[in-house]
Amino acid sequence: MRLIAATFLCALAAIASAQSPSTLTRSPSPSVQIPAFDDHAHPMLSPPDDATDRNFDALPVDSMAPQTDPAAYRPDNPQLADAWRALFRVNLSTPLDAAGRAKLAAARAAVKAREGAHYSAWVLDQANIATMAANRVSMGNGVQPPRFLWVPYDDALLFPLDNSLAADTPDRAQFFPLEEKLRARYLADAHFTALPPTLDDYLSRLVYPTLRSQHDGGAIAIKFELAYLRSLNISDPSPADTPADSAHASAIYARYVQGGVPGPTDYKLLQDFLFRAIVLEAGRLGMAVHLHDLAGAGRYFSIAGVNPLNLEPLFNDPRVAHTNFVLLHGGWPFVHEAGALLQKPNVYLDISQQAIMIPARTLSTWLREWLELYPDKVLFGTDGYPYSDTFGWEEATWLGARNARKALALALSGMEQDGEISPARADELAHMVLHRNAETLYNLPRHH
Question: What is the pTM of this model?
Answer without folding.
Answer: 0.91
